[in-house]
Amino acid sequence: MNIQQHHLLHTTRRHFFRDCRVGLGAMALGSMMNQDGPFAAEQALDATNPLAPKPPHFKPRAKNVIFLFMAGGPSQLELFDPKPKLQQLEGQVIPESYVENQRFAFLKKDAKLLGTRRKFAQHGDSGQTVSECLPHIASISDDIAIVRSMSTDVFNHGPAKFFMNTGFNRFGRPSMGAWITYGIGSEASDLPGFVVLQSGPRGPRGGSPNWGSGFLPTTFQGVPFRGKGAPILNLDNPAGIDAARQGDFVQAVNDFNRLRLADTHDPEIATRIAAYEMAYRMQSSAPELMDITDETQETIELYGADPAKPSFANNCLLARRLVQRGTRFVQLYHTDWDHHGNPDTELTGTLDKVCKEIDQPAAALVKDLKRLGMLDDTIVVWGGEFGRTPQGEPRDFLGRDHHIEAFSMWLAGGGVKAGITIGKTDDLGYFPVEDRVHVHDLHATILHLMGLDHLKLTYRFQGRDFRLTDVAGDVVQKLLA
Amino acid sequence: MPFPLPYHRLESNSMRCLPRERLLSAAAFLFRLLLRNRRVGATALLLLVVCVAANADEPSFVRDVKPILTQHCAKCHNVAKQESGLRLDVGGGLLRGGDGGAVLVAGDVANSRLLRILRGEDDEVEQMPPEGPPLGQQEIATIQAWIAAGAKVPEAELKLKVESDHWAYQVLTRPSLPAVTRTDSVQNAIDHFVLAKLQAEGLAPSAEANRATLIRRVSLDLLGIPPTPAEVDAFVNDARPDASERLVDRLLASPAYGERWGRHWLDLARYADSNGFTRDFGREIWKYREWVIAAVNSGMSFDQFTIEQFAGDMLPDPTLDQLIATGFHRNTLINEEGGTDQEQFRVDAVADRVDTTGVVYLGLTLGCARCHQHKYDPISQREYYQVFAFLNNCDEPQVDAPTPWEIAQGVVDRRDGIRGQIQERETALAAQAEEFTKKQLEWEPTIAPDFYRTLPGPTQAALGKKLDKRDDVEKKLIVELFKTTDAAREAFPLVKEIADLRAIEPAIPTSMILRERQELRETHIHRRGNFLDQGDRVAASVPSVLHSLATEASEATRLDFARWLVAADNPLTPRVIVNRFWQRFFGRGIVETENDFGIQGTPPTHPQLLDWLAAEFVASGWDVKAIHRAIVTSATYRQASHHRRELDEVDPFNKLLARQSRVRLDAEIIRDNALAVGGLLSRKIGGPSVHPPQPEGIYLFTQDPKPWNTDTHEDRYRRGMYTYFWRSSPYPSLMAFDAPEANVTCTRRVRSNTPLQSLTLANDIQFIECARALAVEVLATDCDHDGKRAELLFQRCFSRGPNELERSRLVELVAAQRTAFSQDPDAATALIGGEKPDSNDIELAAWTAASRVLMNLDEFITRE
Prior knowledge:
The complex is a heterodimer of chains A (about 475) and B (about 850). Chain A is α/β, with parallel strands linked by helices. Chain A has helices at about 5-25, 40-45, 75-80, 85-90, 95-100, 135-140, 155-165, 175-185, 245-265, 265-290, 295-305, 310-325, 350-370, 440-450; strands spanning about 65-70, 120-125, 130, 145-150, 195-200, 225, 330-335, 380-385, 385-390, 400-405, 405-410, 420, 425, 430-435, 435-440, 460, 465.
């Protein structure tokens, strides 16, 4: 290319900024577009990023969410909600008054009550009750708020997972991470705003709709990061293309795109140019993110991580690294909590195993965020799609069925009141008797902490303004610091 | 005046149930009585009430009852609100009852619930009205008297039909063409409507796009495949006056048209190859996809297309194809998770069919009325379940769908013969049941944990129970599982024989269909949408705000419903369907909310144009190709798509259509286009779904890994619409470009613009393959001049040559790549996927790199 042509391309580049400003300004994509001055061009480029940060409805308490999703339904009766009375009544048929209008996945109405085999104790200055299964989480009792009175609407795994993630028991609605990035964008400039990580023997039931964007633009859907190899699909250059040649490639693509932009004036092309630049940055930032060997040995040990082997521990550490880099919403799935009482799904050895897999890393995440001064800005949520029944299942080993009326979760950081337990269940642990927190209430509360009013965060689809909380949801005031 | 309260009530209300003169004298009499003696007065009052209740002078609904209802009840029980599905603003509503069933029994006071509710004596419902004072004794007595006398309502009061003046519900008439001054810009009737509006706004249309752009545009829109350079040349040089019309006729006759427009329909049909939800097992319904493609290609009229899909099984002597067509509503999800209530998910599937029908045909969000009266549109919850009833009466079987070839070759007979042999052996095996069970129980404890983990949830659940605790389904599951083991085959030779026979049983394609049940399933209103809380029974019917339904049967059927959807007097279906066509050709519908023509939807930008197209569609005998032809030959469609600065100021979203729109290609078409440009695209039509290459690691995020044996030969390069679609883990490059998730109907695809798309186009192995194939083709031509080759590459990718700047940039790129690869020949070999280095590698790699750049440009994935 000769000098004159270089000049032409350069001119086109300037035209690009100017035209794109006019086009986008007309579409009112952002108030910044009315600015002028030395940085206007760069800001114009920023406005081509649909994930750019947007102001919340009111001053937020938190900036990020890390949701530790315990897929399968952890047993609250073994972990957070001791029931001495249930212990006493073990072996008796549950009173009919409890189950007359209830449906279960597997249980019959005449199932017998089952006490726990686990010991509970009080921990920390706050004296919160946690079972022996989770010693590390017990050690952060003063930093977490335990909710014993969660309830949900549906008792099969797939629909219940959709419900916990999207506030609706069928497919097609946006997930919480999608709603939040739609609402306030992301501060990550070279990583996705909503990332999903996975550990455990299998992926979560239902798959991609759990982090889908539903009717929201695809831009807001969760991006799965794999623990092995390239974390994002197609992140690696093709064989024979090194970083330098990939750089040439991106530059050439964008040069041609700018020429086309100058010809057609279509602002979509400006967005595409920005997308190629971000993709190129992601190609180095994502592997850099995944490489946890640059953490201190002390940190790696705190989590119990092993850089060579994907695990929940690695994912907790990655979650912290993502949030450090501005990612708005990180969701970690850990599967294998579905303890029905089959040889490999029972409440003794297999429960111990999964508890051991998550206990230290989850607690380490809270401790690590705290010592880095990030816990104030980050909400950590721990829990599954439902809990487990006070009745045992008539199988060969100890097990419980899915329970939707009452189960336990915990939250920490980001404006959540620390060292409290809210909600109370009846003597059998069957129904909440105080401070019932429905999934919609949990969603309303998390949005509230992020500075979003769940009644106002809406999207019009098929003639209706949809919300994450559907037509319900109240902010749980007792959870707020 | 110090009248006691009872008298006051009598005065204000009893007037309505007695002739005036008699009442006046009674009142005067009472008045005198009361003045004299209160006790006697009260007795007299009671007498009067009794006298009214048993009045031989029959109470009139309009004169006596309706005013009471209007005063106390109609605030909530009116046509718009219909609390509990009950209307009390009109006599018919009172007779019909609400969600909970009848509220009165004519002539039977004791069994008329309304009276109990008004008195606060009902077990379930609180005393009505919930706010304000309860009805007076006298008012209740009036209603009671009316019921006792037979609850007669005049004809005019029986009408429950809802009226609405909303535009979309109005009868369709063909508007006349508005006059325009720019007659030179008119190609057909469509242009009159568009130009008239532009004229009113003082705007000029854009010039016609150049010929190369036009052929590329119309090829991508009608076929989803770009024109070849030879086709572009021929069209550009075709001087005949009807060159455009000839081109369009050729494209409409191409089998690729059925693929392109069939795929649009599959979006609406939520087509996928798996069951969805948690287990997401595979399903076989690709025959339905074939049917859609064939129907579109054959020019089947849209009304027939609809009737066969909704009720092909109910047509007289239905053909196999007509049965397969009913797959439209079999594309709903199936939940195979252990411990599910199958009725719950069946009901959800029927609800999805109602929602889909509403959105796809009527542009109505019927689904909003599943739990309560529609908040905006005049559709009651009762009406929702009346529509539900049409779709609630089918079984959902699978049928053999052999090809004529398979039938002719006797494959079906051979299969049936083998099945007969299997049956004989099954019977013989059943005679050894006791011994079989004994062996099975010996085997069960020996199941290895690794094997156990691989078993489906229901099987695991069954194994967790003792034999006598298993139900029949569970017993059968374990028996079948045991039969697959060596232990069973050794102990019972019959088990092995059966397995061997099964192995040679020819596979015949099947398809999922609807079959109407002989015995009607009762449909009830589900209170608050809860299928466990069943209210009043309803008969199949349609929303009363719309045109009426014709039926010859005592109860309207699904077939009647199908015919109603495409009846000539349906005001919605033709408007909704042509609007969706328009959306596909312009990127935006005339009604922007293509799935909502109700009160909340956006009004049409060109209402007369919409009506003209819709009326034309019906008048043409629902001829889809005719409407497509009219649209793509209009001057409006043929305009250039370049933004015009003066337009961007006044019409940034191009609603006035003073230009065409640049539209990013659909996900499948992006890949089809790359394959076509690279010369790799297979043109085979139909058949089972295929497995092109995909990146590794897709199934880490699903419950079960899915089988994916990457195809190697032709099936590797089939059109994107044939790619196997797993709902829980869809093909990633499709999803990156906004293909629908296929869980619910999709009437408009989002067009996002994301870095993940860039990564896909830049690095995905399929796109590298296409770039390489294109480079091979360009190098195969006998010109060795970089500038000429750059020209060729541009022609292939964009149906146009490069401008000066583009040409020099491309030549510069090739030169730089050539230098770089010369310094690193191994990289060249790697890029082109060579097994051992070859002297031609560097040149091929340099042109592959250049092709890759062009295939990543915005223009490559955009219809200009």
